Amino acid sequence: MKRQIIASFALGTVAATVALFALQPISQETPASAASSETYRQLNLFGDVFERVRADYVEETEDAKLIDNAINGMLTSLDPHSSYLNPKNFRDMQVQTRGEFGGLGIEVTMENGLVKVVTPIDETPASAAGIRPNDLITHIDGESIMGMTLSDAVEKMRGPVGTSIKLTIIREGKDEPFDVSITRDTITIKSVRWRREENIGYVRITTFNEQTASGLEEAVNELSGEIGQNRLKGYIIDLRNNPGGLLDQAIAVSDAFLDQGEIVSTRGRRSEDTQRYNARGGDLTGGKPVVVLVNGGSASASEIVAGALQDHRRGTVLGTRSFGKGSVQTIIPLGSDGAIRLTTARYYTPAGTSIQAKGIEPDIIVLQADEDGKGGGRVTGEASLRGHLNSESGEEKSGSSSFVPADKKDDTQLLYAIDLLNGKVSAQQAQATPPANAEAETAN
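Request: output the structure for the sequence above.
Response:
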C-alpha cells in the first residue's frame, strides 16, 4: 500500500536515510491522462541508452545498479527531498524511526558536491568527536567525496559497530582541512531529555521518533511533580538543531499544549488532497507559559510545532529563523525493490502560512555567540538547496545561526528564555527592544 508522509530533512543519516513519517493511506487512483506518443518516444530513448551502455561501456556494468541510479537521478532532479530508496536504505529508514540504529549520529545533506553536516545528534560518537553543524566533509578514509551521491557517501560512513572511520573536515574559521577519527556505535536516540532550571521545566526534543510524545508527557509529569504545579513558572521547549521527524509525533507534541484549533494542514496539486489536523481538548501543562527555542537547524516537524504554538499564541518562539522545509513527501513502497520518496504537497501553519524556503521567524530574535564571540555558526537553509521548491510568496530567506554552546553559562538563548519566564523581561519588552545582536540576523 502507498503511504503518505511528511518527512524531516530528506537527508542522509550515517546509519540510515532520514525519512521520518506518519503513516496514512493515500489514493490508489492512477492519473487519468494517458502517456503521449512523445512520452513513449522518450522511454524508447531511455531503453536505447541503457542497451548502449550495457553493450559498449569500457567495463561490464550491473543492470540493477544502472536502473537504480537512473531512477534516483530522475527523482533527485525534481527537488532535494525526492529520492529512490533501495531495499537496504528503505529497511534502514524504517529502523531509524524506531529510535535505534548503527552509525556515527550525524544528519547530513549534499552541497556543491560535498557532504554538509546539518547537525550531530546529541550523545553520539559524532557529537563526542566535536562534529558541528555546517562542517563540510571532503574525504572519507582518504577517499574524495566529489563525484559521489549522498547515498554513496552515507553508505561509506556506515559500517560495523566498533570500527573506526576518518573524516576530513572543512570548517569555517579554520585555514586548513583537518581529520577527525570516529568509532562507529549503535545509536540509540532518546528524543526527549529534561531537567529543572530554577522553577522552570526545560525539555529538549532532539528528533520526532516513536517515543517523542510519550517522552514529553513523562517530562512534564516529572517536572511538575518535582517543582510543584504552584511554583512552576513555565516550560522551555528546546527544538534547536532538531531536523524533524514523524508527523503524528509533531501533531501530538503540539496538541499537548493546545486545547483546540488547527495544528497543520497539507495541500497538494489536487484540492481533494488537502488534509487538516486539529487539536483535541486538554492542555498537558495546565496552561503554563511556554517558550520554544529554534535556530537554523530546526526543520520540518520542528517547524510544525513552533508554527502551531506561535500562530495560536500559545508559546513565544525565541532564537533565530528556522530552516524552512515546508514540503510533504510520500513514501511509495515498490514491493521487494525498495521505495520512492516523492514530494507531493506543502504544509501550512494554522494561519495558512507556508514556511517553504522562508522558515519560522522567531517572536524574539536572539543570536548565539560562538567561541570567537561572533554571531554563531550558520547552516544552509532550504532556500539555498539546489532545486528546492520555491516560496509561494516569492520571498525567500536562508542562512540562520545554528550554534548551540555545550556550557549553559554561554547559552545566550537559553538564559534569555529563563529570564523571560522569570519575569525579568516581558515578551512585549523583548519584541519592542530586541537584544543588541538581533540586527545582524534580521538583515539576512
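The first strand starts at residue 3 and ends at 4.
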